[in-house]
Amino acid sequence: MEYRTLGATGTKVSDLCFGTWRFGKQTGDTLETNEDEAHELLDAAWDRGINFIDTANVYGDPNGTSEQWIGNWLEEYDREDFVLASKVYFPFDGRGEPGPNDSGLSRKHIRTQIEGTLDRLGTEYLDLYYIHRFDEETSITETLDALDTLVDKGKVNYLGASTMASWQLTKALWKSEVHDLARFDVTQPLFHAAYYEDVAEYLDVCADQDVAVCPYSPLAGGFLTGKYERADPDDPTAVEAPDGSRASFDDQFTDYYLSERGWSILDTVREVAEEESATPAQVALRWLIDQDRFTCVPIIGARTTDQLEDNVGAVELSLSDDQHDRITEARYDEDGAVIGH
Predict the structure, then answer these.
(1) Pairs from 329-333 (Cβ < 8 Å, separation ≥ 24)
(2) What count of other Cβ atoms lies within 10 Å of the Cβ of residue 311?
(3) Per-residue pLDDT reduced to its tens digit, 254-281
(4) Is residue 295 part of a domain?
(5) Please, what sign has the CA dihedral across residues 72, 76, 80, 83?
(6) Are 278 and 196 a contacting pair, CB within 8 Å?
(7) Is 195 a catalytic residue?
(8) Among candidates 80, 166, 164, 91, which has minimal Cα distance to 130?
(9) Which domain holds residue 90?
């Protein structure tokens, strides 16, 4: 495992971050990851050199389950070996029916939620605290001031922002500079090889401001693992999927990932994987790790230790400039326009 400095911070993290959104998550009648499985995955991630763990206060059913299970696991380890990230914004279901101040990014909600997060994780501080969404009902200055106080008190080391528009990120960075407040040093957008142009302006801001990027869903919900096959050459949304895979139960899969552009990029990822005797997942993750305009640390959410082992193989892979460019250019048609649906 290689380690890199996280953007403009002084903290070093593994090339991959381990995401825990499946811990305790109930999908219909299925518990995606129970506590024993969660601890097995965390053990495997740590054994393979991953020191960066991502969670959120609302992960798990009930909310807080993911943080609690991570906290239980950490009791057997040295907390200082890990870089822990969590998030705040959404209503937290631990108090029953949400009240008017039980969501968003007000000073009140942030102060309440950080205490619960720290308690469940069994730690005195977070290395990274994300806002899970942008709160249009609360002044960004109030939000930043509340977060800055957490940094001053030593409860949070760095701040991050997950899922917002480029103008919102720009505004937040400007407000931090003008008011001398801690800024967002890390972002967490939806970003993968088949979803690049859609966040180009956002990534331009990150590159310009030396903000690290930790993409969620770096394998496009499993699409870029190569386990799906196109079922109809005239319909990019027609897909053959393994039983129990995301495409068989997630209605958003088609809208998010299945397009002519997606299949074109997947074909190129598969070609490169064959050239390197690697898996498509490893190639897609390496493409992200090798972004040269900003620090890029993909968040992997493996379901099994075998999947985790495969994902970690990306750190041993080396792509040539030509291979990296071929994957990037696969999104364009012969006229240089981005391929649509």
Answers:
(1) 330/264, 330/265, 330/267, 330/268, 331/194, 331/196, 331/197, 331/261, 331/264, 331/265
(2) 26
(3) 777 788 999 999 999 999 999 999 999 9
(4) no
(5) negative
(6) no
(7) no
(8) 164
(9) 3-188
Alpha-carbon torsion (165, 169, 175, 178), positive or negative: negative
Closest residue by Cα to residue 192 from 215, 171, 208? 215
Rounded CA separation 44/53 (Å)? 12
Asked whether residue 23 is assigned to any structural domain, the reply reads yes
Q: Which of 59, 195, 216, 257 is catalytic?
A: 59
* DSSP state at residue 218: T
Burial string for 44-83 (b: 16+ CB within 10 Å, else e) reads bbbebebbbbbbbbbbbbebbbbbbbbbbbbeeeeeeebb
* Structural domain total, the chain: 1
Over residues 217-253, the pLDDT tens digits come to 999 989 999 999 998 888 888 888 887 666 655 666 7
Within a domain: 208: no
Could you give the residue ranges of the DSSP H alpha helices within the chain? 35-47, 65-74, 107-121, 140-152, 166-178, 200-209, 252-257, 260-276, 280-289, 305-312, 321-329
Give mean pLDDT, residues 302-323. Answer: 97
User: Which residue reads 């811990």 in tokens?
Assistant: 23
Q: Is 95 within a domain?
A: yes
User: DSSP letters along 235-278, please?
Assistant: -TT-EE--TTSGGGT-THHHHHH-SHHHHHHHHHHHHHHHHHT-
**CATH code of the domain covering residue 65:** 3.20.20.100
Segment 39-53, tens digit of pLDDT: 999 999 999 999 999
